[in-house]
Amino acid sequence: MFKKGLRIVMAAVAVAPLLAGVAWAGGQMTIIVNDPSNPYWLTEGNVAKTAAEKLGYTATVGAHKGDTNTESNLIDTAITNKSVAIILDPANADGSVGAVKKAVAAGIPVFLVNAEINQEGLAKGQLVSNNAQGAAIGAQQWIEAAGDKGKYAELLGAPSDNNAATRSNGYETVLTQYPDQQKVAQEVANWDRTQGHNKMQSILQAHPDITGVISGNDEMALGAIAALKEAGKLAKIKVGGFDGSPDAVAAIKAGELQYTVLQPVAVFSEEAVKQADSFIKTGKTGAKSEKQLFDCVLITKDNVDKYTAPFVLAQ
């Protein structure tokens, strides 16, 4: 009788996870970011990894650095390792579609963060900053700092990233309302500080009389600031950024950067992991739609002291 009872208990323990069904979780979650040398993407990966581990998963973070071949190889590794979900910051709006399709075909749910791909219905979620909203509040703040008359230059992010065009269009919508602010230069600096510095040097040679610089992200803005310092012109030229990076915050405090638009990367990176966990357990993400926008927050000298952690502003 005792042995029979023991067998029943052991059988119950063995099938408990199966009976719980969708409530069970665990396994490896693969996180793929762009380039962790940029503090924005470093935070993206770290937050997602921490969130996954708190929920009981093992988590690995890889980086494609904007290269779709590297991205594809990382997806292959995730498939081989039988990842239960992939959190991906796509390398290219068009070029990353194939990598996402490959993961989906292997039965792995994919959640995109920070950037979108140009096809819906593949990823379970696309969680991004509200770049149009962020660009609008940034451009308005830039006008407040630079005034409604002058000449300015714009630094653009990587053309393969839809965020670059969305922010630029957002700036354009606001700044064209001020016809006495003339855009005299527009250069691609690929989200990179060194390229921002070099492009700013070239712009200064061609347009030494500019009064402002508006940038698609903080790294390019900080590169521009370095070049302006070297030329002894920073005091007369107003610079605006986008991301909310720690270095940008420090530049605001130092009076070198007029503002930055904080992207809530810490928020949507964690949320993507939570939605992946929900999908693994229940077959549903819990979100109302695949594409999800998270509003940005303006950081200026007036509220910079509320910046409590990388890419977090206390409300």
From TrEMBL:
Family annotation (Gene3D superfamilies): 3.40.50.2300
Presence of keyword Ribosomal protein: no
Location, primary (coarse class): other
Compartmental location: Cell envelope
GO CC term (a single one): cell envelope
Domain Periplasmic binding protein: 31-284
Keyword annotations: Plasmid, Signal
Signal peptide start-end: 1-25
Database matches in Pfam families: Peripla_BP_4
GO molecular function, one term: carbohydrate binding
Superkingdom of source: Bacteria
Entry-linked PANTHER family: D-ALLOSE-BINDING PERIPLASMIC PROTEIN-RELATED
Protein name, entry field: D-ribose ABC transporter substrate-binding protein
UniProt organism field: Rhizobium jaguaris
